[in-house]
Structure to design on (211 residues):
């Protein structure tokens, strides 16, 4: 799988054996997950808001209190993301309208949390790569985005933070920052492709429900 793919798997419980189910890069294919990992993943995915939920279209509000509650929220997001085998998660995806996102684009890296992230710079050079979203099961779309970004944010303790990223990390950050403004990856592709992706999603859901 290419480095630049952002894949989030369909819920394992809904996936038929021959369904084209792909996991986010680096993760084990769903079919090969042990029962415990699958169960944990399914439980996590049930807590993630899905396409059609109006909260995904809401704009999140800046965080002004860097307290224990915020740190608990970030910790929970990191756990959920890990359990769901995702590489990024925005607070809006669990129904919390805070400008908070977490990501871990390399399994070796520690979890990064960005609070109140602001895009300071993005490269003119763009890249097209496949993305998935925990909130949009079964759908993978090619999205064009700036290849590199610089983002200013605060960490869980309120310390200033500047992140310069390229490649997959830049893509994940942009995808999650979009969530904070109620923007989804399917908004970033041509209308015809969006229709096709939605058709594929309905088809996969129908097949899964018959499996
Ligand atoms: Ni997403």
């Amino acid at each position: 799988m290419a480095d630049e793919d952002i894949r989030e798997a369909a819920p394992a419980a809904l996936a038929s054996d021959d369904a084209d189910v792909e996991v986010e890069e680096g993760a084990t294919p769903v079919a090969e997950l042990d029962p415990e990992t699958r169960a944990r993943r399914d439980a996590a995915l049930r807590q993630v808001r899905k396409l059609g939920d109006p909260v995904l279209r809401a704009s999140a509000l800046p965080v002004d209190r860097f307290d224990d509650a915020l740190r608990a929220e970030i910790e929970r997001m990191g756990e959920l993301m890990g359990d769901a085998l995702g590489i990024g998660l925005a607070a809006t995806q669990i129904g919390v309208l805070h400008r908070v996102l977490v990501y871990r684009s390399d399994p070796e890296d520690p979890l990064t949390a960005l609070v109140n992230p602001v895009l300071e710079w993005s490269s003119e050079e763009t890249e097209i790569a496949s993305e998935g979203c925990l909130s949009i099961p079964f759908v993978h779309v090619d999205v064009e985005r700036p290849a590199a970004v610089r983002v200013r944010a605060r960490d869980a303790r309120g310390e200033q933070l500047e992140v310069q990223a390229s490649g997959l990390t830049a893509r994940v950050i942009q995808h999650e920052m979009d969530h904070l403004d109620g923007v989804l990856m399917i908004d970033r592709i041509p209308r015809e492709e969006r229709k096709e992706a939605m058709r594929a999603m309905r088809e996969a859901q129908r097949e899964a429900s018959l499996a």
User: Anything to note?
Assistant: The CA atoms of residues 146 and 207 lie 35 Å apart. Residues 1-27 have pLDDT under 50 and may be disordered. Residues 13-210 form a domain with the Peptide Deformylase fold (CATH 3.90.45.10). The helical segments are 35-46, 68-83, 167-180, 191-210.
